[in-house]
Amino acid sequence: MSKIYLSPPHLTGKENTYIQEAIEKNWIAPLGHNVDGFEEEIAKYTGVSGAAAVNSGTAAIHLALSLLNVKAGDIVFCSTFTFVASANPILYLGAEPVFIDSEPDTWNMSPSALVRAFQQAEREGILPKAVIVVHLYGQMAKMDEILEICNQYNVPIIEDAAESLGSTYKGKQSGTFGKYGTFSFNGNKIITTSGGGMLISDDVTAIEKARFLASQARDPARHYQHSEVGYNYRLSNILAGMGRAQLQELDEKIRLKRSIFSRYKDELSFIPGIQFMPDLEYTISNRWLSVMTVNEKATGLSISDMIMALEKENIEARAVWKPLHLQPLFKGKRYYSHQEEINVSEAIFTSGICLPSGTALTIEEQYRVINSIKNLVKVRV
Ligand SMILES: *Cc1c(COP(=O)(O)O)cnc(C)c1O
After folding, report:
1. Of 12, 140, 306, 341, which one has the fewest beta carbons inside 10 Å?
2. What tens digit of pLDDT does each residue of 94-126 get?
3. How far is the CA of 184 from the centre of ligand 1 (A)?
4. Is 134 found in the same domain as 121?
5. What is the four-CA torsion angle of 189, 191, 192, 193, rounded to 10 degrees?
6. What's the rounded Cα separation, in Å, for the pair 41 and 279?
7. What is the Cα Rg of the chain in Å?
8. pLDDT at position 329, please?
């Protein structure tokens, strides 16, 4: 039986056209017209004024924090229920992350935890320099509530939209609500350049500054002159070419991801103890990964039992992200739970499981996963 992976890259075949062209023009070094084209096309797709292509989603978050002048000793609020890359750049700058729990409707940043974090910060006389909001697995966070709170304190938002390219909230694209939005084109993401990222904003001056910082912050002079710290973060012209081909397929990939999710839900949600990631009204998730929760008491199966049993069938399933406030790396950092004694991200962490969701997954392969899960639960019940 062939291996079914969680979310492998899915090439369209059109990548070659762009890559070939770059090679023929002998223009593979950083920058070049694929980079310009990819930036313009992402800006157009999402409806923002500017985009800077970089070599990872992590680099895009690092640049966004730098543009907001985050420095050693500053505080940055960040969703706790996410991949470590959302918060690592806070540490690169010597700043202090404060983690915010999820709420049950979207599994994303809890507005009530965010309010308590702000109230405490205000009492202590040190407001955060930025708030990093993650749209987990493609699901949009409650942006109206979060924006209202952040605007009240005049603190800018960075949306880590690495997993949510193409998702919308009240018709508006993810990544376009905050001062900055960041995307990732890592191999497992909905579109990929093998590795890459993008920083977007309506502030074109800031995007221009990001390009400057991402190319070693070289001053406009005849000789090599530098007045501030820069990074080597630009995307290569070859990889940008892959991105342009992949972006053309994004809407189709979203359609496929959403139908994969619906099929899992239709086939499995009748099982007592199995529930799927909720859908918030007025939002459309790209359903980057299909995620469900498994109640151990009701199904007789822990998530690690299930992951191991699926592995024996050559099916790759994975646990959800471990909340960052539980990571050894962030031991002792502040954390605000959804409500007193109610830790939403911790509960999802102990019961959540990500199912194979690649856009090249065939219906037959998906039924292999579905039937394996049905059999597992039956055996135990
Ligand atoms: C993938 C991912 C990133 C990092 O993107 P890279 O391109 O791998 O650096 C950041 N945040 C989240 C939530 C991600 O899933």
Report:
1. 341
2. 999 999 999 999 999 999 999 999 999 999 999
3. 6
4. yes
5. -150
6. 28
7. 21
8. 98
Helix or strand run (H / E) with residue 291 = strand 290-294
Q: How many residues belong to the chain?
A: 381
Nearest CA to 49 among 246, 235, 206?
206
Burial 107-120 (b: 16+ CB within 10 A, else e): bbbbbbbbbbbbee
- Cα of 81 vs centre of ligand 1, distance in Å, is 13
Q: Which two tokens stand for residue 85?
A: 């890359």
In which residue ranges of the chain is pLDDT below 50? none
**Count of structural domains, the chain:** 2
Q: Which domain holds residue 132?
A: 15-247
Whether residues 46 and 67 fall in one domain = yes
Examine the domain organization and report whether 64 and 103 are in the same domain. yes
Rounded to 5 degrees, what angle do the CA atoms 77, 82, 86 make?
A: 55
196 and 335 share one domain: no
Total-model pTM: 0.96
Where do we find the tokens 């050693």? 72
Q: How far is the CA of 86 from the centre of ligand 1 (A)?
A: 7
Query: Quick one: pLDDT at residue 381?
Result: 52
| Position 368 in a domain | yes
Q: Are residues 22 and 59 in the same domain?
A: yes
CATH code where residue 339 lies:
3.90.1150.10
Q: Which helix (H) or strand (E) covers residue 307, if one does? A: helix 303-312
Q: For residue 8, is it within any domain?
A: no
Q: Provide the 10 A C-beta neighbour count for residue 350.
A: 13
In a domain, residue 6? The reply is no
The pocket around ligand 1, CB under 6 angstroms, is made up of 56-58, 82-83, 85-86, 134, 160, 162-163, 184, 186, 197
* Joined tokens for residue 330: 């962030």
Question: What is the reported pLDDT for 29?
Answer: 65
Q: Are 262 and 237 found together in one domain?
A: no
Cβ atoms 298, 273 nearer than 8 A: yes
Probe target for ligand 1 pocket from 7, 78, 79, 83, with the most ligand atoms within 8 Å of CB = 83
Q: For residue 312, is it within any domain?
A: yes
